[in-house]
Amino acid sequence: MTEEFKNDPSQSNPPAEQSAEQSGQQPASTAPPAGTAVNAELSLQATNVPIRILVAALSDIGCVRTNNEDFLGFDESLGIFVVCDGMGGMASGEVASSRAVAAILDSFASSAASGLPVSTRLLYSINMANSDVWENGQIPEHRGMGTTVVAAALDANKLIIGNVGDSRAYLIKDGQATQLTVDHSYVNELIRNGTLTIENAHSADLRGMESIITRAVGVSAEVQPDFFSVDLTPGTGILLATDGLTRYVHQDEISAILSASSFENACASLIQVAKDRGGLDNVTCILLLVLPA
Fold it and tell me: pLDDT category, 39, cuts 50, 70, 90?
């Protein structure tokens, strides 16, 4: 499928349907190989206004790392989308992020018939991911592992977003990108207490402190996610991304980069900018675009 990423609600003709094999779609609990894009399409009815959601996802190892500790997954039939950035020695970061994604998708699916609000199901799913990573982190070779989480779940005409750590969600609307989530990070604590400003945070010499997070999934028996809600209307875009992207691509650049790209190539375009500017970390994003049905 080819869609330009532009906030244009007048685009009402859906692209030709593709099978999972044709579109390159991976199983819901499996992240795509580095350098492989994933595209999918979801139709739903939101408060009697028919809309459809385009989904694109991509994960890249970056320019320096030898392994990819990021992991993504989504289940378009359930309307759940997850990005994680793992941490830990050896391969533990990969274990943490992949287990967290799988636990969130599985738990969200298992609660589908519960009748519980989507926000409650998302909280339950993140808590289950925390328990899974925490318990597996007691194994000596994985001790100390953890992961960030940013997860988004569809709730009729709204999107419920939960986050732990510094992986972010952005709203893209009317030519502007706005950060929805609040980073649980050392840098953000400096901004909160006035030591840094948002404007000078990117240029400050933090001597490696920019990657320190103050909350993570799996580092303790309990976790405290934050939650946010955003209305979905035709033309709305949502970007979920790890800090391997947001460290290099500033908020005021995101919309312009996306607008210059087709939807199919939008994630690749963002990731390429991050790699061109250093790409010291793994880079992962999921992009959602709301269109009229």
Answer: low
